Amino acid sequence: MNMRRGEFLPLVLFALLVVLFCMTRYADYDLWWHMKLGESLLATGGLYRLDTFSYTFAGHPQFTGEWLADLLIYLAYVAGGLLGVNLLKGTVLLGAFGFMYGALRDRTREEEQGFTAVILTLLVMLFALRFRLYVRPYIFSIFFLAVYLWCFSRYARTRDQRLLYVLPVMQVVWTNLSVGAVFGPVVAGFFVIGEMAADRQRPFLHLPVLFLIAAATLVNPETYRIYTLALNLSGDPFKAFVGEYQPLTAQILWGYGLRYTLPFQILVVVATLYFVLCRGWRNLFHLLLVAFFLYETVQQVRMIELATLAAGLCAVTPVAQLISPVARFLKGGARFIPVAVALVLVGVIPVSVVGNRTYVFGYGLKQDAFPDGALAFLDREHVAGRMFNSYSFGGYLIWTAPERKVFFDGRYARLYNPDFYRLYNDALSSADAWRTATQRYGFDYALFEYDLKSRNFPRHLADNPDWALVYWDNHAVVYLKRTPANQPVIDHYEYRVTRPNFYNFSYLGRYREPAAVRAALSSVNREIALNPANQEPYLAKAFLLYQQGPAAYPTALEAVRAAMPLRPDLAMKHSALAFLLAEQGFAEQARAEISRALELDPFDAMAWDLGPRLGMKMKKPTRSPHG
After folding, report:
1. Are 450 and 476 in contact (CB under 8 A)?
2. Crossing angle, helix 304-330 and helix 138-158, to 10 degrees?
């Protein structure tokens, strides 16, 4: 298919947008252990059959079926650091969209509206994929599924069987890159079923291709176990606790996840129009393809990326039909439609890339995503022994501090089993389970993620006399077991009053008597000095002072103001500042802080209580705090 005049610029701009979407800072949990396994493979020249990075499962067999992806990711890092990893992601995604462009173009007419429909569909697909663009083996599945869809679309147009016999070779590569290769035979099977329904005279013409693809899937170190791993992940009893394995819930679709999944929902709606209004139901291959991947996506959200490709393949037809009347109305002006598309892309680039707080542009680590400060503390204070660590930190610890053998990391189902995951979750939520785990594994210190979103944190340790909080920043917390070896560090660094409690300071209510408050404030000032970048002790100080009555409000105001420039920016500290300002007669400043609090959290209770008292006209939110 020849490129028409005017199509080159939109294609270049779209390719640029794809690359820019891949230029983000990293907060991914699993990238690191994949790179470490790739490094191990390159260093030893053999597959990593047994675990050497944890002490809980050391010597146990671990899954090796994605060895080629681990190696490629590590080689990208060796070549260019995290920028090289970004470029690998961009290259894979450009390849995927290149094949999807070919597949969608084969399904549209030659006129300008066909090209426009393809670019617009690809644009929505890119936004639908954005929140799933991690550098992990599955990103290669996006590429290979695009190759399959292009081959089948091109075959439907040319009937060239040579295209189909390329797929078994591609399958051998895919099956050593990603467990997602199990979908190769599935998609090929849907294609064969569709062809059998359409060609009754030669119903078995394509069965040899299907058998070859299925056989090629077994050409990897794990053979049939790539299927059992996929089935285990689909049926895992704890998949709802692991972000990417959780089902597609109403919250993800229309609640807090709406900003991530809206483009995908648009694709699904338009693809549905294809089946209902464009008689797409007659194409059995398309019907089975979309139905299957939508079902899988409902089961686990991580399937959105593959469902996006399937939905996009069908959505392009109604998009083209919607554009056709516009092109006919414009007549000779229709040639300017690609120019309009180019202008849209030019507008999308700065709006979606520059200044985005979720997908931070650049390369390297995302701020406050990893426990570098806590690791530096452990090294500086020579803390040793066995470590309990948060699941989310495990991969990064394997990469940056392999000498500190991990308790748990992202190799769930590839190494760790459901019983161990249950033990881990119970230890975080129950003091008794924590005591049992301590006795079983004998860990001497604990490094936890302190995350306001997941809040998967053992608050029960604050009341455990056997453990002491010694390090605390906006993202990580370190507890030490009270042992003779740890006692010198505890004596110097222990937090004795403030505790990680997600900005709920009700625990300070026990300090009521003036002498107790003075002693607590003295301790809090010391704890502020331990890490001046941690704002929670500042706010704890303000809470203690607030409990003392109006005479202490000016000092409380100073404590809140000291926390204002610190990360993260929270609604509650703005509403607390507003309250203290209002109490001292600074009504205009208080109203400004309430407005800022509601920008950060439209449901902030203190702001809603205080605003009307300051004469502010406030419109109630239309949705509940949970979407």
Report:
1. yes
2. 50
